[in-house]
Amino acid sequence: MAADNERKIAQRAARVDAFIVMDVLREAKALEAAGVKVAHMEVGQPGGPPPRKVLQAAEAALRTDDLGYTEAAGIIPLRERIARHYAEQHGLDISPERIFITTGSSGAFTLALSALFDAGQRVGLANPGYPAYRNILHALDLEPVLLAAGAAQGWVPQPHDVATALEADMAGVLLASPVNPTGAMLSAAQLEGLVRLVEARGGVFISDEIYHRLTYGEEAQTALAFSDDVVVINSFSKYYAMTGWRIGWMVLPGWLARTVEVLAQNMLINAPTISQHAALAAFDAEDELEERKSRYAANRAFLLRELPNIGFRDFSPADGAFYLYADVRHLSNDSVALARQLLTEAHVATTPGLDFDPRGGRQYLRFSYCATGEDIELACERLARWMQRREN
Ligand SMILES: Cc1ncc(COP(=O)(O)O)c(C=O)c1O
């Protein structure tokens, strides 16, 4: 019967790969349920609760009777507050009418891609890159075009490759900067060049800015600085540490706003109301958020110092986000097996590069460093011991 029923599964759904990091997380949780302490370096989940002001705003919202449906685009005070954020951070005048509140950036991808592209259209992605982009495109019957962005390309897609793909009918690109998994960033000039290139050929530029404000040198530039026709996607999950609250936003070109609204009305109704009220306070929690970011910076410095001593030497730039992408080909040519070994033998959870790069990812492991400092130190002690055992 199972085989009969499998025939009923849509081909586009069957093409969707597992999100490997979520599988690793499941295995890590199973170990923990069996009483093992796991050092978590797999998932991009900021350790600890969201800022106190966010929790207080959520508590206050619970005491109102204002937690029903909201309009599909989200509550006006939050859209206005996000508009103010663009004025304060980037000196940009963005109308709240162009801001759309979503269920995390994940909810934004489905809405934006459904609004912009028809089945079969081609959308460019950096490779390596965030795996869900590829998988969501498949689920929507869209074709990912993998733009090489490895060590040989300086970890960002090259204009020549983007131009070639546009000539071969690529209808748009979806790029993040800072990048998950590499931490690499497009400079403002590189970002501007790509936005102009894509738009000059009639394509749409979608900019995933979820790791903005998590940079350790230059601040990241928003694609909105270069065009009003880009789609910008952002989230309260990372800098604002609100992963489970499922809340994010998009800035849309004026001509796309109504289409997205209509889709959202039908597919989602609205992003979680309590999270919208809580997120309103996130922009006023700067002190706590910056303190948290300094923890990531300390973890990053610690790992950049310690991992080479342990035997992980070759990394991508790590200018932003909270990831190190390490070349592990001297240890294994199968990072999925290596990650499993590290989890079961050293109780350190990491993510195999295959999640992010179906071509060369078996030679890379991603270490996430947004956990607590103690977790990161514990992970390093265990990795060092594991490596010594391996060498003896
Ligand atoms: C580049 C990138 N975009 C989007 C997401 C999804 O985040 P959200 O929690 O906002 O759905 C992630 C999560 O790790 C990510 O790394």
What's the CATH topology name of the largest domain? Aspartate Aminotransferase, domain 2
Task: Quickly count the helices.
Answer: 14
Top-tier CATH class of the largest domain: Alpha Beta
Instruction: Give a list of the ligands.
Output: pyridoxal-5'-phosphate
Rg, nearest Å: 21 Å
Strand order of the largest sheet: 2-8-7-6-5-3-4
**What is the averaged pLDDT score?**
94
| Count of all domains | 2
- Which percent range fits the helix content? 40-55%
What is the CATH architecture assignment of the largest domain?
A: 3-Layer(aba) Sandwich
Tally of strands: 13
Sheet having the most strands: 7 strands, mixed
Strand fraction = 5-15%
* Overall geometric form: globular
What's the order of the H and E elements? HHHEHHEHEHEHEHEEEHHHEEHEEEH
Task: Write up what this structure looks like.
It is a single chain. Helix content is 43%, strand content 14%. With 392 residues, it is α/β, with parallel strands linked by helices. The protein folds into 2 domains: 2-49 and 286-391, Aspartate Aminotransferase, domain 2, CATH 3.40.640; 52-284, Aspartate Aminotransferase, domain 2 (3-Layer(aba) Sandwich), CATH 3.40.640.10. The chain has a 7-stranded mixed beta sheet with strand order 2-8-7-6-5-3-4, sandwiched between helices. Strands 9-10-13-12 form a 4-stranded antiparallel beta sheet. The site of pyridoxal-5'-phosphate (PLP) has 13 residues, from helix 6.
